[in-house]
Amino acid sequence: MSVTETSGDTGRAADDGGKGAISDRARAERRLGWWLAGPAFVVMLLVTAYPILQAFYESLFRYRLTDPGAREFTWLNNYVVVLGDPIWWRAVGVTVLITVVTVLIELVLGFALALVMHRALKSLRPILRTVILIPYAIITVVSAFAWFYAFNIGSGFVNAWFDWVPGISADTNWFGEFGTSVTVIIASEIWKTTPFISLLLLAGLAQVPEDLQEAAKVDGATWWQRLYKVTVPNMKAAIMVALLFRTLDAFRIFDNVFIMTQGANNTEVVSFLAYRQTISRLEIGLGSAVSVLLFLCVVLISFLFIKLFKVDLASARGER
Amino acid sequence: MMDEGQLSRGTKVWWWVAGIVILVYALFPVAWIVSLSFKTPSDLGTGQFLPTDWVGDNYDNILRGDAQDLFLSSLRNSVGISLIATFISVVLAMFAAYAIARLDFPGKRLILTTALAVAIFPVISIVTPLFNLWRNIGLYDTWPGLIIPYLSLTLPISIWTMSAFFRQIPWELEQAAQVDGATTWQAFRKVIVPLATPGVFTTAIISFFIAWNDFIYGISLTSTEAARPVPAALAFFTGASQFEEPTGAIAAAAVVVTIPVVILVLLFQRRIVSGLTQGAVKG
């Protein structure tokens, strides 16, 4: 009896090893861990790290596919060209505009949706959580077409339905100028992605302690006060994660712009600019430079979020 | 949370109103594209939401008529490529998630951080170099040429979602079963597999949605019906004749590709919601 107990203890002590010498068992576990997780890790690096390095390399050349003979190493000249071109800055401006507007509206709208879903009647809740998934799951291109055809003169109903609104008439061309085009692009983006943000916020809401709410209620706090003083501070982590993901996602917007305007009326966004340089104009060097710059923008945004807003993904995931 | 019996009639009415607003919000654009798909070309410009006559010509066109080559081949490509990419990433992620949830090894954080970094990677930045490389090594406009980059979309979310699910599995049950006389394999198969299946399954659905949704890779790395997926094909649709807008055909094709998504959502709503939120918030 006592013998088995002792051997059991030594076994456990070996398990805990790692403070001092690593036991064979811990070493075997490490090896197994990497054997299991390694393939996924390597594949992730292969499909992203390799292309971005390749893009950086190609961005150092003046290189057009239609004229391979003229390929020439030009150092950072492509970056000078891109950064010196108003087209790039306009694309950045449009992208930032779309990102800021969509994310802010989505945050408010998504929060409202989450509050309704959180508190909705028992009979309604499953229905709401099901329908809200439909915009999330639908193909972005399909959603872009739906919104495009709804507003487009030749096929839409929006002009006919809203002709009583000042400025809208039967022949309002929504895709004829910048302001209206961007409005429709933003609307379709908001429709499609708000459900995602609202589901993240809903999960955050579920983590707000119910007794805190009750205590605030007893103390006579109004609904708004409870929202500001209790609910929001307690789900700050969820809000920040939702914001970070959506900001980065919105900054990469491409599908809606491609379907609705193809960048017409100055609605070109950064992703579309990179696409146009590479795929349409076959300017591999310039396109790569735009791609690398876009990548750097995304890194910068993540960095700002993590530093300025102190988004701690680990704590948000409950790892603390 | 709330007991319906305790609510006053007025409050109840407000909840129903809020619920209906959400229903309309979510379904309105879908209803519109369905309605559009049943319109005749002459019915398009009327400014009406619903068709004057409901006709199935557009479906006939994409499933049996002139547009069938373009549409059906793209449907085959989309289904095949998305399923294979999903399968590969779910298998790879399953091993990784098992290791992350169950084993103690240095680099766990590194793997999760890498997955996060890959998830926020701008797709177009991958397209540019791949476009050139794929043309040189013959992967341009092929299934593998899309499956490989699709992994950059599906693998990170699979790892996050599945490791979140696996963390919640009570792994002690495995030992308990062994104490009760089950072999290691039996314990794994009878106890762990049933507990892990929902997580794997949910991950597969979410991963499939993401692959199914891809547009940038689809238009950039394909040029013919050999590999072009549905979203890309929609953007290149042409009308029944050269002088006709492809509006009706696009709407009908859009409805067809939305049906599987709606079915998956209806069947697995609860799981999808928990999968989406666990991966990102709770873990």
Describe it.
Chain A contains 16 helices and 2 strands. In chain A, strands 1-2 form a two-stranded antiparallel sheet. In chain A, α4 crosses α9 and α7 crosses α9. The longest helix of chain A has 35 residues. Chain A is flat and about 75 Å long. Chain B is an all-alpha fold and 283 residues long. Chain B has a domain of 169 residues: MetI-like fold (Orthogonal Bundle), CATH 1.10.3720. Chain B contains 11 helices and no strands. The radius of gyration of chain B is 23 Å and the shape is globular. The interface between A and B is large, with 106 and 102 residues.
Q: What characteristic shape of chain A results from the CA principal axes?
A: flat
Name the CATH superfamily assignment of one domain in chain A: MetI-like
Compute the gyration radius of chain B: what is it? 23 Å
Counting helices, strands and paired strands, the structural category of chain A is mainly alpha
Tell me the span between the first and last alpha carbons of chain A. 40 Å
User: Low-confidence parts of chain B, pLDDT < 50 over ≥5 residues?
Assistant: none
Largest sheet of chain A: 2 strands, antiparallel
Proportion in β-strands of chain A: under 5%
Shape of chain B: globular
| Oligomeric state as shown | heterodimer
For the largest beta-sheet of chain B, the strand count, sense and barrel status come to: none
* Strand-residue proportion of chain B: under 5%
- Overall pLDDT of chain B, averaged? 87
> With helices defined by DSSP (H or I, 4 residues minimum), what is the helix count of chain B?
11
Order of helices and strands of chain B: HHHHHHHHHHH
DSSP strand tally of chain A: 2
Q: Low-confidence segments of chain A, ≥5 residues, pLDDT <50?
A: 1-19, 315-320
The CATH topology name of one domain in chain A reads: MetI-like fold
Number of helices of chain A: 16
Structural class of chain B: mainly alpha
Largest interface, chains and sizes: A-B, 106 and 102 residues
